[in-house]
## 1
Amino acid sequence: MLEVLRRVIQEVNGARNLDAALATMVRRIRKAMHTDVCSFYLYDGETQELVLMETIGLHSQAVGHVSLRVGEGLVGLVAEREEPLNLEDAPAHPRFRYFEATGEERYSSFLGVPIIHQRRMLGVLVVQQAEKRRYDEEDEAFLITMGAQLAGVLAHALATGSLSRPALPGGQALFTGVAASPGMAIGEVVVVAPLSDLNSVPDLIPTDVEYEIVRLKEAIERVREEIRAAGERLASRISAQELALFEVYQQMLSEAALSQEVEKRIREGQWAPGALADVVRRHVQYLERVDDDYLRERAADVRDLGRRVLAHLQEETPQIPHVFPESTILVGDEISVATLGEVPRERLAGLVSVRGSSTSHVAIVARAMGVPTVLGMVDLPLPRLSGAEVVLDGHRGRLFVRPSDELKTRYQSLIAEEAALVEVLEHEQDLPSETPDGHVMPLMVNTGLAIDTSVSLKKRISGVGLYRTEVPFMIAERFPGEQEQARLYRDQLESFAPLPVVMRTLDIGGDKDLPYFPIDEANPFLGWRGIRVTLDHPEVLMVQLRAMLRASQGLDNLQILLPMVTNVDEVDDALRMLDRAIRELGEEGIVTPRPRVGVMLEVPATLYQLDALAERVDFFSVGSNDLTQYLLAVDRNNPRVASLYDACHPAVLCAMARLAEDSKRLKKPICVCGEMAGDPAGALLLMGMGFDSLSMNAPSLPRVRAAIRRVSLDAAKTLVHETLALNTPGAVRSHLFARLGEWQLAHLLPPRD
């Protein structure tokens, strides 16, 4: 059954449109399950009805005409309960309803499963049989699996506009991911095609068919030459049988085999890379389905050849165009900062990526630039999105493809309101961050990029609460040397002097890899990251500590922060290395005072070791993002569980309140430098809990300052007391929204549904 399932899925994925995919699926399922009928009912959210979209076994004239409300009949019951229904004698069921147009009176057995995509009902898949038959567990498991596969196909069809039946007017589709940078935008998609990825080549209509054909032939000839040269180099080192494979490759590349078929697709209206990808995918899918082992193995050869030819085609084709739409939404499998830099800033309206996370380098840059960004959008059908109009919601991690006029109008209004608010708040950014009852709440900024060293920030903040030293490491091709690092750190320290600058030692691992120092782990967030890496590589940490100390000469505003601390021993080891660096530099004639040192509180274990840590360090800094994900056991960058990651979870708020209380008892200053600090409601809670300072990305400063200037410290303390008594994240968020509404500050929060 698994082999049958694999083949059906391959055929469905290879279909050019939704109708073809549905027709393939119902026919293959009926055959595989040895049943009389297989049908698919599509759910229309506007009419809240299930429409018969495809069938084999029922009357074909019923397609598109028979519909049921949710809860009506057996199909409606499956949709209502969102669970399978398996009946041996369907007409005997009290919910059974007969539709004359379908001709289903002949059938007794019924098995229906819901089609659900990201908790959203899309339809119902049904099989029926004339004789009374109880479908067994294997049948049910097979149909459930097919239903899960169809959910993805349907979502893609919605996004690409290939679902044009009246049941779903407009073809609007919603995809969700991880909200990485706030803001909203309406624009046109420009797809960044990864090099040599046959599954991510966008569809484009060629402007010059003959030129595309010439490009194709030149690319094929270059690959033929590469293979011929490789065969000659290896002729004396491999057997005649292995050498024969090079001849097979040459035959596959011959005019009759590959070139003519791709050329035909180009003449049908597809550019060369897209035509090549279409043909290669079709050949691979065919070869993977055949029973002959030798031919199945050739599928990998065809795929490899396709990638080689595609690589040569892409040498002449820029990954992204030279001319960009006025409002460009850059979409790709994985967008690099280098690619980001190719788009004129005034035309870049938003970013969307299949891969990536809220703490990836591109997310950090996007937040610094104030560009709405959603990452980890795993279900996005990249090849069919080029040129599509979209609405991007960076607050809630949403992408609407081919939005309705009503949705566009709503978001145009929200975007206008947000722009007006930014303009209003700009007028008070040079005013102190002080509550109406005189409490000063120091606001600091998170930096790590050249863009963050703006002098205009200096008079608006109390210092840099977090300088991410890993960012310069990420954009280099090797570990930067001591002098190179010292220059970077000096620029940062001088730009903000005499304000304090808290520099975090190299924090790689998790989702922050260095290209020249990859860390491949099954569970990177619980693996080798932060101080665990640098203590294992003292040569890297020593160079960094020496560079920081060199850079701080004569400025006296350096503070050092140790990330991902789990054990007190780690702090002791790091402090010994710092003392050694000071001693070594002194021997070289460079005298530097010992800077203040702090630890990041982001591993839950540190909550129970504060007393021991307080004996060793000068301050604490809470990494609320990591602390939240570790407390809740939720990977915040996984879109499948992103909704469970919530800094307003009562357990997180209780932990934060305890940290503030214990730090006060230990007389150690404590700062919060996660996303929670940059949220106006979160900032008010943290102020009420007693945190000494808040550090955030620069674009978050205006809203947080506005909230603090309008809410007294006593009111914030009352808010904390009320909130800690609540039991669910939803209740917390509703209460915060209500309170800020009473204080006429709801406009500072992200828009709600």
## 2
Amino acid sequence: MQELLDQLIRYARGMWRYRWMMMAVIWLVCIIGWAAVLRMPDVYQASARVHVDTQSMLRPLLRGLAVDSGAVERVGLMTRTLLSNPNLEQLARMTDLDLRAENPQQMEDLISGLRSKITIESTRNENLYTISYTDSDRNLAKRVVQSLLTIFVENTLGQGRADTDAAQDFIDEQIKQYEVRLRQAEDRLAEFKREHVGMMPGEGQDYYKRLESALAELQQARLQLRELENRLAAQQRQLQDFQEQSSDFTLYGSGESPELAALDGRIRSLEQQLDDLLLRYTDKHPDVIEIRTLISKLERERARIKPAAADSGQQANPVYQQLKIMIGETESQIAGLEVRVSEYEERVARLREMIDTIPKVEAELARLNRDYNVNKANYEELLERREAAKLSKQADISADDVKFRVVDPPRVPLEPSGPPRIMLMSIVLAGAFGIGGALGFLIYQIRPTFEDARLLKELTGHPVFGSVCMVYTDEYLKKRRLALAGLAVATLGLLCVYGLVVTAEMLNLNLLRA
């Protein structure tokens, strides 16, 4: 903050060196500006007020049956288009202003000047419109406002009838066109459906939704199949465990068959004989070989008889029967799911094969349906509007829905409405000081000076070995005080001239009012 303040003070000191040049520029700008303001001609503003009554007795009765003629909107549109080129050209002919234009360019300038001087204000709640025009000629300003009022009333009344007839003709023409479009859209839609039977999308589903649904069904079926396969494997393991337990029980339990017991006894006896022979002979002895061969035959016979005996015991067990039933049901369900998975896979494959065909068919069908629905909706809407337009036309003929009443006829005050010379003179004075200050700042930027050694060191980056102070003599101080007094007198004189000019303008306004 301190650096910014120091910089502003430095700028002020630098500009102070060119104070006389700044004061001269301020005086020059003020004299030229005030002279231009005083030479501006007086202007007069003519105005008129008109009330537009858009309330009709038939409008509440026909609400919902007939199309609103839009009296309010029509009046509002007329106020917005009152300053169009055709209306302004008509205004120029009515007030003989067109005689001033000798070529098209001058006519364009005349129309632009009229548009810039005309103002239209409205209070929508009360339907009260004020038309104003500003010009240096009082009589011309009054004629222009009168002519604008005439154009406003006549064009608004005539536009309602013309708009109704034009709307009726337009609706009839559009109905004929939409009949042809609707018939063509129906033919295209029927032909397209015949050509693409079997590819039409389902109710509320397009191709990608159908593919997504098929993939979801396939994934669900595969999941159920894996669950059943895991269940079948678990049931088979249970059955195997049960069979092993049943075999062990048959082998070591009290339920062993007599045939197996006899075989086991012979095998144990032969094994005992084999042990005795091996104590005396080698493995190649004929008796040893014969006994081992006999033991092998008996063990094979025992292995053949044992499963049959175990199965006969298991068949009579209810747990075994229940496991077999459950395994059968699971295998049946797996077979059904395998058929379903195969069907879903074929359906997904068919959809994927038609990935480039079905979306195009669906998109084309959607486009045809959209065109058909749009044409149908527009056609039905136009039929309703035509009947409402006929009823509205009869209502417009039977009664006027817009009435005009001139509240204030065109008038022009005796005293001018402008220009605001006092305000303009104040703006000139403020602008002159701004221009003078800007000039002093610009010169200081072009020809900068250094007020102290510290600033010189900061800007150049080199050390300053010393500085010489200025010694003010009495004669210099006297001249300086005289210069300051002269500057104050010049400033005070400028303000006095401003006061005199403003006072003269106020006296002139008071004389005009008197």
## 3
Amino acid sequence: MHNPRDFKKLFKRLLLSPVAGMSWEDKLAFVRAYMRELESRKDPMEESAELEPAIEIVPFEAGRRPLDEALGPGLGASEHAGLVSTAAEGAPTDDLCLLYQVKDLYAYVAPFHRTFEVRMSVAFLPHVEGHGAPCPVPGLQGVVLEPRVVSAAAYPFPAIADASWSEFYKTVYAATLSPEGLLPRREGSAEGRGYDWSEVDASLRARTPDGADPFTFANLFHQKIRVTLALHTDGSKYVAEDTIEAEIYDTGRFGSLYARLLERLIPADTRLQADTLDIPDLHVGYHPWFPVLTIGTDKAMLYLHAIRQDLGEQRRNLPDPAWLLRVGLYLELLTCLGIFEAVRAEHPDLLSPAERQVFEKSPVFAKIRERIDVAAWRRVWATREIVPRTSDLLAAGPVSFANLLRKQKATLAFLHAHHEDLKHAIALAGPNVENAQETWHRVFRDAERAVLKNGLAAFPELGWLDKRTRDFAMWHQRGVFGSYALPESVTGAFGDQDGVFPSACRQYRQSMNEVARFARERGLMDHTGDECIPRTASLFEAYMRGDSSLVDALQRRDGYGGGLDAAEPLSLGPEPTHADIAALLRRVPVFKPLTDREVERLAQKTRPVVYGPHDRVVREGERGSSLFVLASGTVEVLVRQQSGQDVAVATLERGAVFGEVALLTGSERIATVRTTCESTLYEISKQALAPIIESRPQLVVELGLLIATRQLDREGRMRQSGTEGVASRIRKFLLG
């Protein structure tokens, strides 16, 4: 039997022994956490071998990606959307990456060396609750996962690296699911992706009369899946599990309904009108519906490209790609099916017989059917008549220049009906009060890019003008003549109008803002400021004001290089060094009690994030567990009044810190913080700070004192919690 002196020596020797991946502070934090665990047991002498292991999946959190776990521990999140393609081989797909932790495995790693496995199973979920049971995906049941983690070795691209179960207590593992495994094998192929369609549960096959895969029109071109990660020990003994739901979208079919309009309906109607008007070889570009469909389709392809970057490369063009996918999908269904029904009496059905069957009978389409406004689309269809040439003076090739006005009328009518559908699409997609504003900015700017890209193609009438006149027609701003600006009320009296680009930009922004107001009033969206999309979020407005720096910043925010016509993806630069981050953290008052070594450890776990103009970093009322240090740029602090108006109360510059109370206590954010320009911030998580607090518990009192002082200074009165109260909240939130 050992005496106390021997115990002390053995314990010290154990602490001083090198452990892969553990610093001295990590060891102290681990010992303190283990001692608290022992104290909480009914029998402190109970062996760890008797503790039941557990497994927990890290949920999705808007604005975060799995790669963030490698850049800043505790800041990563699982994905809840993925992409697959039923198109030709080589079409872009994306692995679904899920983060998870295994806990209390002390009895299954050294020195006990008992066996255990993490197994993954996947099931398709019914689109309508109560209409069918989950269908297991053949070949994706009980798949054994190796210990792997997300790595930043290939930054800015994510990478998956091998890991070890022995470091379970500090490791967030990564499970990847290739969406290819959700597709059946191609006909005649015995190898490759997926399974045989006949292996799928009969109920799913019965719900899919229009094809032999789970992503057809009958299934709304996507599938909801449930992924289960289960912990098994000693061969096959089930111990614990956790589940997460995700959405997988077929990019090969996304936009296919719009394509039917452009490839079948509009060409057919153009030929009919050409025969009636006796205009031989009339190009489809002269059809009044052509501009809005061409530009709208290209806009959808642009934001789908952003989604692919976010999911495949884990960039941050969109806070929540899945929400935009849902909205975009429902909008396509509502608009295209509404048009299909409106023109059905005049043109062959644009749905196949099997698609017609599920559209009219399937409960999957019930909520869509009840929201389709066929009468509205019939009114829009009435604006499609081409204006023929009546004189050489007003001739634009085979049509009259008045056809441009017809296109304008058709476009406005189309957008009105389309945005009524958009309101329904938002309701079907579900509320998003956290990040819809940032998503709206991106969709609006993609519309601007689509207008710029397709301007001449969508309006071939302009090609009959000389370059100077054409540029005027495309770029002229109402009331602006050269270097002179006159009141619009004056110039409007003699027919002065915005050109194609300014008109399209301003009308679309007005319409998008109206939809946002509608959704906000119903609790489906929220935004900061009087308008969801202010003028300063517009590429065209910045360009026409000559503000090239804002143009470049907005382009970079959306993942493009600088310049209005830049189409190449932005090349991400190197991350700031730990030394750079540590130097700034030392200037932050809330971290004054930390030693240089502790600041350096914190810097290693800090995540740098670049925000674009008008991005909200935190939102009033949400719960958070991160602190932000402003490394460059400026941000404004806004507080919402009872009237619903957001009032700016402060502007913060480099070196400012915010969110410290939420980081240390888990309380709600007391204000919204929004960037005013392109800004870089350093995010520090609860998980990054907790080990430092564990190794030096007296920091709780010092940090509590600093926070209480800052709160008193901020409020200007002695009504905030005292040091004792804040310290206890910090201790409870960080240490449990």
## 4
Amino acid sequence: MIRLRPRIPLRLRFFFRAAFALLALAVLGLALTLLAEEKERAWRSRRDGVDQTLAQIGARLRHPTGQLALMNPEARPGPPLRPLVLPFGAIDFDDRAKAQQAVEMAGCALQYADAVQLCAAVGSNPAAGGFLYLVGQLPLGPLAARAPGDTDFSHAHRAQVRVAMRGREWRWLAPYELPADAGAGAGRGKLTGFAVEAGTVADRPQRDFRGWLWQDARCIDGGSADDCLRRSYYSLRLPVELFREDLQAARGRPVWPPADLDRIEVHLRLLGPGDDAAAPLFDSDQPGATPPFTLAELARLLQPGESLRVRRLGPGRATEVALLSGPEDLAQPLSPLLERLIRALPVQDNPAPLQASDTVTTPTGRYELQLTGDRRGVDRALGRVATRTAWFVGALLLAIGLTWAAIELRVIRRITLLTRRAAAVRRDVKEGGEIRLDVAELRGSDELGVLAGTLADLMQRVNEDVHREHIRARQEKDQWHAVGHEILSPLQSLLALHGDPADPSHRYIQRMQQAVRVLYGQASPTEAFQATALGLSALDLDQFLRQVAENAPHAGIDAVAYEGPGGPLAVQGDDYALEDVVTHVLRNAARHRRPGTPITMQLQRAGQRAELRLHNQGPQIEPAQLERIFEYGVSDAPADSGSRGQGLFVARTWMAKMGGTIVARNEADGVSFVLSLPLA
């Protein structure tokens, strides 16, 4: 016979080449896809970041401190002290709490050392009269008040105020006075203002000059000494004549705040009892004061490359107030190739440029905020990610190339040859011939060589095992033929001796004849049971089980107790096969029960099925063996007992052929076998 060379269904060389090429393309595609998604996320993140930053800035500027910065964009830290426009119409300077609350909310106070504060401001409402307010706090010792009618102010605490504006100057001297109804040590008094011109103090106080000085009753250090330092607060309202002149000249359309507000100089000195030349308790021109919040501080909220433009909206045109920029991006520039690649990646809804705007309304007007992001900043940030990713992509491509070369040169050729030999083995198996696998040239010390040698040895052992199995099968078949022939003859004679159907032995002889017929002529017990067809019919299971329980002693099983449902219960079954099942289970229960304990059988109806529970008291079954005990050949009986591990296997086989089930369950005091059959 001519031996044809087996045909290989798939060329591995082409398959692996295509697979590695696709893998390399997939790595590149994955890298580009990830970069595109990263760019999309970066754009969305940058857009969201611009919106969030603008929202944060807008919220900051809508607060009174932010409005103060918007309304005073040209504010400069002193000295000299310069007034600011408040986001309030005026200050209720007569009320300490309201005055302090207005200053704290607006954040207009300069912060000096030792918790000293001072706010110089004008109200945003020109109808309030055009006054200049000085509100502050500082620690002071016991206050000395001016006696009524005393023209020598050196015995009292006093305030010296100077205002310079448009080449003119105003001065006041305001001594501390107690109200007429206040007793000694009162914590609240007036600062009565006397105008000072050419070094001469006026005889009468100026009516529009108003001031107050308050002092806490508690000491700052928590002590109780009379001469301790206490927190003191003051509030002054200064009449500025030029403000009033401007308001009167405007005739109903005042320009407020004054255009030269940032050029007004204010100087305040608080003096204690003593000569005016002595060191003041506080001087507003002293250095080191921390200024209020300004627009320039918003630059800290900006990202690299972002810029914030603030414009004041007016009729017909907008005036630029401030232009702030974020920190400089100090990252290394990208390579031109990588920059072009990133720029070419598509982005949906790509705004040009990144921009967001908002409007803030203050008492003096509306301001537009315009925040612009840096487009190139997104590409630079993505470029840094791409640079790190490129190393991993390059390493993956190198690994793919090395793996392909190794497989191509060392594995594929030998696998192809082994595949041809395996195809020849498959043909030999189909033809029923001897299995041969020639792998002499494939043997070696590597994994594939060891595999080839192992397969060759395995094929040889398979040939030997197949030959032995054929011999064993023939011998077993001959044995069953002989056993069946020898048993049927004496059973036929016994049946003639016990021909009365009422004789219990008659039924057992019939069961033996059926078992022999099942096994007669079959190759193995497993095949015999599986190939046998049962004759199913309606069977009263209650009456059947009562009879089995009564006949159990004849089979060598005593103390079997049966509990039925109290009436007929018909099922579909074969009475011989079912009796065989119950007997096998009873024998198994009798072998494992504790001496002197009964075996109980309980029958009940469970829906459309009948359920029989056989229970014995004794040791439990290992959980891992609950299913294996129904396999053929599994038995825990001693080897010399003659048990072949066939009883429970037969029981499950017959139950399956009758449409039923059998399971084993561990109970608290022993083991139960539950049989279930469909109702007739």
